[in-house]
Write a structure and sequence with these properties.
By secondary structure, the chain is an alpha/beta fold. It has a single domain, classed as Uracil-DNA glycosylase-like domain (Uracil-DNA Glycosylase, subunit E). 38% of the residues lie in helices and 12% in strands. The mean pLDDT is 96.
Length: 221
């Protein structure tokens, strides 16, 4: 087993946060009516992608009926629809959608992960839950030596990246399109691909495409 696979196996067995354990398992037991025939994953959701990635996409946490259902981050929800379509348009994914772990999706030059690996109630992890998960992200970064750009989807991911990289203070503030060099990485801010942003037009497809074009430019340096 590769070191990355071993790390992700540890992630999926984690039970450090009692509130998150209880919530993810309740969601998996009760289910949503539209997915009544699914066998929910109901565990921490591992990251995935290209071990030689130069771009890391960092999200907030799995969705209760998305990654918590399918077992793959951003898979099976509207946020993932937007993200993987953009990765496909950028040439970083082999297909524009992701509906299950067995759908054939493969990423090239890109790794997708999250600051918190369990679905949190109301999509709001606590600071303690974030801090419990950060060592997993730190370990991933160590095992992805070619990575140069971290696309942070939202302020929570931006803050988590700054924390895990122990960025000096004063720390740069999150903003869409903002860039912050930290060590060997450049953090690149992007509004989260949540329905709250995509349905309202706060984040558009051209805006998202521009972020990934810039990510590719930064990763090539």
């Amino acid at each position: 087993m590769s070191e990355l696979a071993s790390l992700e196996a540890r992630v999926t067995a984690c039970r450090l946060c009692p509130r998150l354990v209880a919530w993810r398992e309740e969601v998996a037991r009760v289910k949503r009516a539209a997915f009544a025939d699914w066998n929910y994953w109901g565990r921490p959701v591992p990251a995935f992608g290209d071990p030689h990635a130069r771009i890391i996409v960092l999200g907030l946490a799995p969705a209760a009926h998305g990654g918590n259902r399918t077992g793959r981050i951003f898979t099976g929800d509207r946020s993932g629809d937007w993200l993987f379509a953009a990765l496909w348009r950028a040439g970083l994914a082999n297909q524009p959608e992701s509906v299950s772990r067995e759908d054939g999706l493969a990423l090239t030059g890109c790794w997708v992960t999250a600051a918190v690996r369990c679905a949190p109630p109301a999509n709001r992890p606590t600071p303690a839950e974030r801090d419990n998960c950060l060592p997993y992200l730190a370990a991933e970064l160590e095992l992805l030596p070619q990575a140069r750009t971290i696309v942070c989807l939202g302020g929570f991911a931006w803050d988590a990246a700054l924390r895990v990289l122990d960025a000096p203070r004063p720390r740069p503030r999150f903003g869409h399109g903002e860039e912050a060099p930290v060590g060997r990485y450049t953090l690149l801010g992007c509004y989260h691909v949540s329905q709250q942003n995509t349905f309202t037009g706060r984040l558009t497809e051209p805006m998202l495409d521009a972020v990934f074009r810039r990510a590719q430019e930064l990763a090539a340096v």
